[in-house]
Structures are given as C-alpha cells and as structure tokens.
Amino acid sequence: MNITERFLEYVKFDTQSDELTNLTPSTPGQMVFAQFLHDELTRLGLKDISLDQNGYVMATLPANCDGDIPTVGFIAHMDTSPDMSGHNVRPRIVRNYNGTPITLNEEKNIVLSPDDFPELRHYMGQDIIVTDGTTLLGADDKAGIAEIVTAIEYLIEHPEVKHGNIRVAFTPDEEIGQGADKFDVEGFGADWAYTMDGGEVGELEYENFNAAVASVTVIGRNVHPGYAKHKMINSIRVANQFAIMLPRWETPEHTEGYEGFYHIVGIEGTVEKTVLTYIIRDHDRDRFERRKKELEHLARKINKEYPGCCQIDIKDQYFNMREKIEPVMHIIDVAEEAMRMADVTPVVVPIRGGTDGAQLSFKGLPCPNIFAGGVNFHGRYEFVPIHSMEKATQVIVNIARLVAEGK
C-alpha cells in the first residue's frame, strides 16, 4: 500500500479527542483506530506488538544487522483536534495544483485561497489532499502515522537497508495534552525517539513552549441594580478590569518566533461569579516564571481594591524540551543529515506549542519533532502535500540507516 492510500484509509476513522471525559483514550474512536493499527502491524510482521487498555500501540521492527546499535523510536498520535469535527472526513486530491483558489465546498462557498493561506504557493505543481470544508483533514497526525508505517514497510521489503531495532508507538489524546501521560517509557525501550508531528516539509524542532494554565475566579456581590450603589460588586466588570491590565501586545495574535504570550481562552460569568481561563506560554523558563508571577500580582491588585474577591490557580502543563535535548545533540545531527539525504533542507524552528516529545523528554526519552507535512492543522482549511509525506517517509528510513552506520 502506498502512503496516499494508507493516509486516505486512516482519515476515515473519527478519532477526535475530548478533554471532558476523563478517560484514556478520551473517545472510543481512538481505540477502534488503535486496534486497526495493531492488526496492520501484525500483518506486516512486526514483533512485540502491544495494545494496552489506554490505547497505546507499540511494536518492534527487529534489527537486520549485528552490532551494538542504539534502538531508535518513531512516535505519532492517533487523535485529532477537538477544535473541529473529524467525523465523516471526505478528502479530495487536487492534482498538479496550479496556484489558484481551491473550492472545497461549492454549496457552502468554502474556498482555500492562497490569498488567505500563502503557503499554498509553496506546493504549486504538486498533488495535495484537501478537505470538503466541513471537517478537518486529520493530517495532524495521521500523516505522521502513515509515514511511520510506510517507512517500516519499506524497510521490511528492502533488507539491503541495514538498521538496528526500531520501536514505533501510536498514542492517544495528544491534542488535549495527555498523549504522554501513560506512555511506558521503560517498556518502549528506545534510546531516543522522534515524533513525526511537525508541520511543513523540513521542519525540525527541539524547542517548545513552557506552558501553564491559569484559572482566575472573581467572586462578586449581587444587589438589586436600583439600590446597588456602594453595595454591588459586579464580578464581570472586575474580571474585565483584570483582563485589561495584562499587556495588550503579548497575545498570540501579536507574537511570533520566541515571543511568549498570555492567551485568554475562556470567560464565563454572572454578576456573582466570573471565571477567566488563560494559557501562559514562553520558551524562556525565567520569562515563563515571571509571567505566572505577573498574574498572581494582578490578582493581589484586584484584592487590594476588592478584598478577597479574586482567586487564582495556576498549573504547569509542560516544559521546554531543549534542556533535555542539548546533552544529546547528536540526535538532531542525525535528523538533519537524514533530511539532506532526502533532498530536504532542515528548518530548525521553535515549536509555538507543545508536543508529546516534550513530556517524553522529561520522562527520560529524548524526543525531538520532525515534520509530517501537513498545513493549517485543526480546521477546515487543513491540507497535506503528498510529496511532503513521501519525503518524511524517506527521512525515517534514512535515520534508521544512519543510526545503523554509527552516525
């Protein structure tokens, strides 16, 4: 099966995750897909295949040469984003893309235009897979899974390519930040690994945000508005006061690269009680800690004006994996060389987000991130160039070869 056929088969599975179920996997569709992958790896002849009760699939491609060769792993996640439906995905291949707007859904007038998404122009002349405009595509991260399985199949069919033991894993619930929570690092048994979960072709990432979530609760006092003078405390207005004290330009829509931000992602309230939910992000650990302290400082300012009114709860989510990768930078060198062998120019960029690899790195499995090829993740305008998936597959094969050669 070629990678296009495999990818189109995978996106049929509805694996949208849900952070509200408190289950692992968070949705039953992920376990259905996990069983499918388990069976596919069995048919391919891999060893040590397992599917645990939490939906983690693991397997081994045994070494085909002798020597003390490190065991390298490749990891991708099975779930798709809760941001948009992954039910009844209807992908379409646009052949030899010519640079003009692509009508995804004529009835709903949904158009993927290079005027809105200029990165489309990078793929003129290529075949790209798009949605029908009513769902996301699922290239995040079914493209990564397809690339890993296709690379493994290639290595099986081409024994002249020497490699050591290769471990693969497919995880649930990455999109809700839980993909590494129950990952058995010791049982996986790799010396290091790569997540195939990046974006455009060439991306190589070993830095990510430090991340926290903050819940700001404002308790008000409701009094009949006709008699409220000097009595009412409107929690909505006080919460708004808190929000506008944060730096206006330190938000996602005004930042890029290594710039961190405060991002309000939810507000729910009445006069009596309002809750603001923020995510806090920064690549630099010191700035990250200062951002958390700034939120606490603003809560104290609110409480000085309205005693006992404001409560804040901040929880760390994950940290920048760079500190865990720097001592083993040879694994980045291997990935860069594997890309160059595939005629891909490595583009080392910081992840403006998180990845399973960050959490796994802190659990003892160094795990940088390699491109999977998709673009515009998490929405109806998602697409993936077939050529990019093919290149990612070549990179995996090249990594296996280079590690066996002791590079």
Low-confidence stretches: none
Range of strand content: 15-25%
Note the total helix count.
10
Average pLDDT, all residues: 96
Query: Largest sheet, if any?
Result: 8 strands, mixed
Please tell me how large the radius of gyration is.
23 Å
What strand order characterises the main sheet?
1-2-8-3-9-16-10-15
Task: Please describe what this structure looks like.
The chain is α+β, with helices and mostly antiparallel strands. 30% of the residues lie in helices and 22% in strands. It contains 10 helices and 17 strands. The protein has helices at 3-10, 28-44, 139-157, 185-188, 235-244, 285-305, 322-325, 330-341, 356-362, 386-404; strands at 47-51, 57-61, 72-77, 92-94, 102-105, 110-112, 128-130, 166-171, 192-198, 203-205, 210-219, 261-269, 273-282, 310-318, 347-348, 369-371, 383-385. The strands form 4 sheets. An 8-stranded mixed β-sheet has the order 1-2-8-3-9-16-10-15, covered by helices on one side. Strands 12-13-11-14 form a 4-stranded antiparallel β-sheet. A 3-stranded antiparallel β-sheet has the order 4-7-17. Strand 5 (102-105) and strand 6 (110-112) form a beta hairpin. Helix 3 (139-157) packs across helix 10 (386-404) and helix 8 packs across helix 10. The two termini are 30 Å apart. The relative contact order is 0.18. The mean pLDDT is 96.
